[in-house]
Task: inverse folding
């Protein structure tokens, strides 16, 4: 039996690109690299306008504070350093680099003769930091900080290859095409954390990946492969931990508090590459899909490439898009600008036409209870939304407003099309503001 | 073709909205339609049965159905027009209310009462409280009770003709008066017995209800708890005296619209709880009340009253029996 959790919803999968090999997208004419692609402090530019930079060269860092350094994804000349809104709407400095087409790699990126057994955990943390790795599932928490804080506190490493969002197959293709990088990255992490147990967790809608992983790890006692039931939000850290260990992680606590640490599959493969060659995160796999794209596919995209360049590479538009989503359709952020750029956290670019977009009529809640059944946190979204609408946030909290993880399952299943999770967000924000006072 | 498509330009504006950006295909109207479809066989059976009693009865049953359904939709439309609210008849909930009301009426009833019932259901029980989703009692049941109380003789047991056309007692009356031996359980199950228009065929109602559960339109909690409670009490404490009477139990759950009530009226979304535990308790309460009314009250029937009473408890059931939050210790309230 595939492991799972109670609650959640079955979402139409639309994994249209799961059988297509990842294509490497050539670097565009210019890239615009944000200096904050992670949770934490934005980094400071290390280059000036007019400088020549190499592919893989560090162009932004900060001496202290929580951050992940930023590297150039092309070789070329810095044209500008400018403020632009990020994918979440926050103003962020971007370094605009004109590609000179030389593709000259930074000399520090080369195969290293490192022996895992002889590498100290602190050294691995440094390697991961220097490579600018940040959670590539979309949360973008600086990975080195996660490793450092987990040392001595956890007993299980979980590699998250659930990929429960519809449409996205970026992790699927990565795990299928480079399983050795995922397994190898897990080994690096096990060594860094001094653990002898790692779980590769994959939803059972990817049997080929489970097969490959089982083949690769058949003689390893310390790395196991877990098949998870295909259900949204199976890849959420709380649901993942519950499915694999039976432990419930309360709101406000970190996975380390129940002895677990979770890394996204692509993050793990980036760690592996950083360990072997010091290659920083300068490209990532992005699923491009939606009914407006001519050729939906998975691309390995240089960081800083604009959505427009990615769409053009996929053959342009076949319909006028109404929404452009960075990330999955359940939790991704709708973009207002086709000139926004791919960052370390961009797992997908989805273009939906009018017909595929949510319409906005707002019916009356009929108390069907589907949101209650679907809530993976076992809250009562119907009442939270009703009270939030009346601005009675105290009562909203009675039904669990603060416990919401904003997975959107409630809004997804609502037959009356009430934007439930949006109401819950309002209640959460109001409650948080009140707490601050 | 490609040449043409190349001309598609990037839009000047994109829609920025809160996630999720997709949603499930089911709508309110779709769910209502499912319930209507699940009820249809039992309703058709009731009308056909009325025709076998006599063409006048059959015709009246047909007219009642049309008057209730059309009347409910009309009054919904009318009220919303008068109060200048958006017209919501397309969500099919008024149609369903009309259908349920028709199924709760005796086939001898004058259609005028049916029209009055529709007006009461839609305007008083539903729209005055704010329309769909805001009424706290089931409109069809409220209208039935309104008619039962206001027009005693027209709605009473004398109004149920036997198959030979004479007035007869419903199975419930026979049970109550100790004449249970005269009942054929098989006939009751199939539905060849007196009763309201839509409650007679326990079999078709059961099939319709099971369809709704398997189609995930309703959850199993309420009907199972409701019918289970009635079955358990009537089995252990039959009204015939003594204990453990399987025949009495079977007669009890097959009669008096229990199937109709348990699968289609107690599960009415708007007026039933949403938390799983609350649904179970609600079902058990409905079952207890139904048996108590049948045993100890003057009225032979308890389904309508018990559901209506439990409707009033829904908010508290949901509030005090809300699910244990993920990550919260057992037994601890947030």
Result:
């Amino acid at each position: 039996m595939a492991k799972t959790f109670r609650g959640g919803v079955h979402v139409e999968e639309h994994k249209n690109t799961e059988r297509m090999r990842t294509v490497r997208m050539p670097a565009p004419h210019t890239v615009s690299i944000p200096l904050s692609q992670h949770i934490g402090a934005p980094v400071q530019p290390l280059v000036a306008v007019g400088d020549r930079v190499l592919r893989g060269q560090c162009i932004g860092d900060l001496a202290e504070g929580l951050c992940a350094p930023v590297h150039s994804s092309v070789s070329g000349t810095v044209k500008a350093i400018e403020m632009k809104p990020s994918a979440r709407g926050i103003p962020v400095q971007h370094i605009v680099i004109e590609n000179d087409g030389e593709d000259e790699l930074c000399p520090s990126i080369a195969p290293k003769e490192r022996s895992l057994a002889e590498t100290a955990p602190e050294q691995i943390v440094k390697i991961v930091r220097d490579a600018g790795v940040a959670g590539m599932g979309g949360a973008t928490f600086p990975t080195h900080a996660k490793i450092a804080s987990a040392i001595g506190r956890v007993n299980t490493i979980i590699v998250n290859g659930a990929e429960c969002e519809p449409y996205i197959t970026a992790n699927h293709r990565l795990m299928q095409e480079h399983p050795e990088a995922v397994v190898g990255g897990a080994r690096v992490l096990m060594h860094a954390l001094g653990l002898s147990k790692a779980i590769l967790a994959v939803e059972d809608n990817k049997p080929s990946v489970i097969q490959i992983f089982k083949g690769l790890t058949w003689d390893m006692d310390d790395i196991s492969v877990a098949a998870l039931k295909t259900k949204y939000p199976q890849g959420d850290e709380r649901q993942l931990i519950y499915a694999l260990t039976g432990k419930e992680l309360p709101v406000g606590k970190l996975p380390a508090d129940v002895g677990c640490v979770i890394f996204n599959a692509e993050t793990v493969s980036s760690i592996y590459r950083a360990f072997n060659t010091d290659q920083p995160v300068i490209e990532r796999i992005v699923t491009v899909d939606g009914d407006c794209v001519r050729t939906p596919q998975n691309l390995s995209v240089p960081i800083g490439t604009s959505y427009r360049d990615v769409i053009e590479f996929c053959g342009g538009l076949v319909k006028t898009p109404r929404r452009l989503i960075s990330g999955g359709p359940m939790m991704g952020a709708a973009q207002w600008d086709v000139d926004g750029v791919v960052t370390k956290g961009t797992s997908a670019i989805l273009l939906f036409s009018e017909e595929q977009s949510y319409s906005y009529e707002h019916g009356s809640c009929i108390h069907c209870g589907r949101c209650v059944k679907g809530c993976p946190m076992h809250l009562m979204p119907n009442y939270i939304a009703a009270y939030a609408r009346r601005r009675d946030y105290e009562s909203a909290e009675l039904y669990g407003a603060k416990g919401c993880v904003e997975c959107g399952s409630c809004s997804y299943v609502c037959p009356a099309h009430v934007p439930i999770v949006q109401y819950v967000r309002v209640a959460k924000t109001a409650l948080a503001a009140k707490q601050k006072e | 073709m490609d040449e043409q498509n190349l001309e598609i330009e990037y839009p000047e504006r994109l829609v920025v909205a809160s996630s999720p950006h997709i949603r499930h295909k089911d709508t309110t109207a779709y769910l209502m339609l499912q319930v209507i479809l699940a009820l249809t066989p039992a309703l058709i059976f009731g009308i056909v049965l009325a025709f076998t009693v006599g063409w006048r009865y059959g015709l009246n049953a047909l007219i009642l159905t049309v008057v209730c359904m059309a009347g409910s939709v009309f009054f919904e439309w009318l009220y919303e027009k008068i109060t200048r609210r958006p017209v919501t008849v397309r969500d099919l909930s008024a149609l369903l209310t009309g259908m349920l009301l028709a199924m709760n009426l005796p086939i001898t009833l004058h259609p005028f009462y049916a029209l009055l019932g529709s007006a009461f259901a839609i305007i008083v029980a539903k729209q005055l409280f704010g329309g769909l989703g805001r009424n706290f009692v089931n409109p069809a049941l409220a209208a039935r009770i309104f008619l039962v109380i206001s027009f005693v003789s027209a709605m009473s047991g004398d109004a149920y003709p036997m198959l030979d056309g004479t007035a007869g007692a419903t199975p419930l009356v026979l049970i109550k008066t100790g004449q249970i031996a005269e009942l054929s359980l098989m006939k009751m199950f199939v539905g060849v017995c007196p009763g309201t228009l839509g409650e007679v065929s326990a079999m078709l109602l059961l099939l319709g209800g099971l369809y709704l559960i398997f189609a995930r339109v309703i959850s199993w909690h309420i009907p199972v708890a409701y019918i289970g409670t009635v079955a358990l009490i009537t089995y252990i404490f039959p009204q015939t005296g003594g204990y453990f009477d399987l025949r009495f139990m079977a007669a009890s759950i097959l009669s008096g619209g229990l199937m109709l009530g348990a699968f289609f009226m107690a599960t009415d979304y708007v007026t039933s709880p949403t938390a799983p535990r609350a649904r179970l308790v609600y079902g058990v309460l409905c079952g207890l009340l139904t048996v108590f009314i049948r045993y100890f009250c003057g009225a032979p029937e308890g389904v309508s009253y018990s559901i209506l009473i439990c409707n009033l408890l829904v908010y508290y059931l949901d509030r005090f029996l809300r699910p244990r939050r993920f990550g919260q210790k057992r037994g601890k309230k947030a």
Notes: Chain A touches chain B through 74 residues (CB under 8 Å). Chain A has a mean pLDDT of 94. The CA atoms of residues 49 and 380 of chain A lie 53 Å apart. The longest helix of chain A spans residues 420-436.
